[in-house]
Design a protein that fits this description.
By secondary structure, this protein is of the alpha/beta class. The chain contains ten helices and nine strands.
Length: 244
């Protein structure tokens, strides 16, 4: 059974936000990221000819690249980008009509929000995830953790201020995935003829994610062993035998 869009996003753990100045630059960035193992990208509507770029990338990479459209603020834009090949729609703010249009086409909706009211309103409107933007401006990982305290059901993707240095803290705070910008989507590297910089950065981000997940698995295993020991001790006590 093939993965859903949500499953791919959470497996990869990253949504690179592509704001290229032209189509050639966009293609070069995507190629370099894929070489580093990152197979998800959000093409923003600020890219000249964004809809055409999405269509070209879809044709070139097919299902090996999960394509999304970003900075989508109208239902018309949502429809057009979905027609071009976008599987998820991202907005910097909450637009009910965009969420509705996206869900009507059975695509994944990621509207933007910042305050608790905005976040819960977006979720209740049908958002699959909520993009917290600009997250670093209001406290970064600590704000994300505070937001999840009263709303643990929310699936949050912090964007703005996510770097290699801060990525782990956002994950520990409860992020389902990370929206990453210029540190990974490095247009200067393309202009300088060094796309390998992007490839190396992509690998570095994936290493951070892998390390975090491995620590989580180990913690779960340790907790499981501890629970077994406790259960064994309780059974021994009930049976009148000394706990081991």
């Amino acid at each position: 059974m093939s993965e859903t869009t949500a499953q791919i996003i959470e497996r990869v753990g990253l949504i690179p936000v592509l704001r290229a100045r032209n189509a050639a630059q966009a293609h070069a960035v995507v190629k370099a990221m894929i070489a580093g193992g990152v197979t998800v990208v959000e093409v923003t509507m600020t890219v000249p000819g964004a809809i055409e770029v999405i269509g070209e990338l879809k044709k070139e990479y097919g299902t090996s690249l999960l394509l999304g459209a970003g900075t989508v603020t109208t239902a018309v834009e949502a429809e057009a980008t979905i027609d071009a090949g976008a599987e998820f729609i991202v907005s910097p703010s909450f637009h009910p009509e965009v969420v509705a249009a996206t869900k009507a086409r059975k695509k994944l909706s990621i509207p933007g929000a910042l305050t608790p009211t905005e976040a819960i309103t977006a979720s209740e409107a049908g958002a699959d995830y909520v993009k917290i933007f600009p997250c670093s401006a209001v406290g970064g990982a600590s704000y994300l953790k505070s937001l999840l305290a009263p709303f643990p059901q929310l699936k949050l993707i912090p964007t703005g201020g996510v770097t290699l240095a801060t990525a782990e803290s956002f994950l520990r705070a409860g992020a389902r995935a990370l929206g990453v910008g210029s540190e990974l989507v490095n247009l200067a590297a393309i202009d300088a003829g060094t796309p390998e910089t992007i490839t190396e950065t992509a690998r570095a981000y994936l290493q951070v994610l892998a390390k975090f997940r491995e620590e989580g698995i180990q913690k779960m295993e340790c907790n499981g062993e501890e629970k077994i020991k406790v259960a064994g001790a309780l059974n021994s006590m009930r049976n009148g035998a000394p706990a081991k």
